Amino acid sequence: MIPLKSERDLAMMRQAGRIIAKIMQKIARFIREGISTEEINRLAEELVYKENALPAFKGYKGFPTVICTSVNEEIVHGIPDKRLLKDGDILSLDLGINYQGYFVDVAVTLPIGEIESGKKKLLSVTRRALSEGIKQMRENNYLSNISYAIQNYVERQGFSVVRQFVGHGIGRALHEEPQIPNFGRPNEGPLLKRGMVFAIEPMVNMGTWELEILDNGWTAVTKDRLPSCHFEHTVALTEKGPEILTQFFL
Ligand code: MG
Q1: In whole angstroms, what separates CA 170 from the centre of its chain?
Q2: Do residues 26 and 109 make contact, with C-beta atoms less than 8 angstroms apart?
Q3: Is the pLDDT of residue 159 over 90?
Q4: Centroid of chain to Cα 88
Q5: CA of 62 to the centre of ligand 1 (A)
Q6: What are the distances in angstroms from CA 104 to CA 71, 78, 168, 217, 236?
Q7: How far is the CA of 76 from the centre of ligand 1 (A)?
Q8: 237 CA → ligand 1 middle, Å
Q9: Can you give the pLDDT at residue 154?
Q10: What Å distances lie between residue 191 and 125, 171, 234, 242, CA to CA?
């Protein structure tokens, strides 16, 4: 069962989305060469509580921090620590909050200083893959067309999509039905309806789609240690089509 949100639910999620967007924008502006990922987490924690929200990831199945900071070959679930960002790195930030009982989830990958052209392409392809997925969020379209659009676009650009982690429904819980893989065949699964809200989140690798989990039990890294990129928005399907609830500008 895919939960459908009422107008009131959507109004609350819009508020939550505006809050997380504001927080992410502030964090993104703070990011630069020479700061540690731990400092990013401290800022994220401060900003989340200042907005009277709660972190959605900290404590989730024991995850230790408010934000995920995944650098270069790290795909998702990078844990902030003393590591310093350096020129040429790419940094994926993933943040979820709970605002008055409503969850929203967003991720962005940022360049640190000047990055090489392969990484630039990886970032632009992943950002575009997210918008290709969002475009499929139309009433009475098949759920799997989101997955298909993302995979099809990414693979035509010569990159691969991660299989082990997927997008998801979101609302009163961080993870609701359905799962939204970044791969799949077209025209399958349930039909999309007004009131559905999804966290769509392509994770795109420069090389192989295969991954490994580091000894911390959390952090996923590419098996070939080539870079990986992650963009995510929380998106509602309304009478006007897809509405991005977590939009922010850098
Ligand atoms: Mg998510």
Answers
A1: 12
A2: no
A3: yes
A4: 21
A5: 16
A6: 23, 19, 11, 24, 11
A7: 10
A8: 17
A9: 99
A10: 27, 19, 18, 14
74 CB-near residues (< 8 Å, 6+ apart): 92, 219, 220, 221, 228
* DSSP letters for 193-242: -TT-EEEE--EEESS-S-EEE-TTSS-EEETT---EEE-BEEEEEETTEE
CATH code that applies to domain 7-244? 3.90.230.10
Residue of 192, 171, 158 lying closest to 100 (CA atoms): 171
**Cα 168 to averaged position of ligand 1 atoms, centre (Å):** 6
Q: How far is the CA of 34 from the centre of ligand 1 (A)?
A: 28
Span from the CA of 198 to the centroid of ligand 1 (angstroms) = 9
Residue 250 has pLDDT above 90, yes or no: no
* Paired strand residues for 228: 205
* Percent of the chain topping pLDDT 90: 99
Domain range annotation of the chain: 7-244
Report CA(167)–ligand 1 centroid distance (Å): 6
Q: How far is the CA of 124 from the centre of ligand 1 (A)?
A: 20
Residue 50 dihedral angles phi and psi, to the nearest 5°: -60, -30
Positive or negative CA dihedral for 227, 75, 188, 199? negative
Number of helices (H), then strands (E), belonging to the chain: the values are 4, 15
Please give the distance, rounded to the nearest whole angstrom, from the Cα atom of residue 20 to the centre of ligand 1.
13
* CB of 196 closer than 8 Å to CB of 169: yes
Residue 178 Cα to ligand 1 middle (Å):
12
**What pLDDT is stored for residue 49 in this prediction?**
98
Find the mean pLDDT for residues 136-157: 98
With a cut of 90, say whether residue 190 has pLDDT above it.
Answer: yes
